[in-house]
Amino acid sequence: MEIYCPYYLKYYNKDFGFEDWQNLCNPDVFLLKNECTKVTSERLWIG
Question: Which domain holds residue 18?
């Protein structure tokens, strides 16, 4: 999931950019929530 995580985050959060990508660690754990028509992301754990 390490490689695909930024792609999923960018797909669901258009504000996720290069600086956000640079701040990712290994492993980072994100929770994606689908609430009606809106998907939110929450960073649960920073590696």
Answer: 5-46
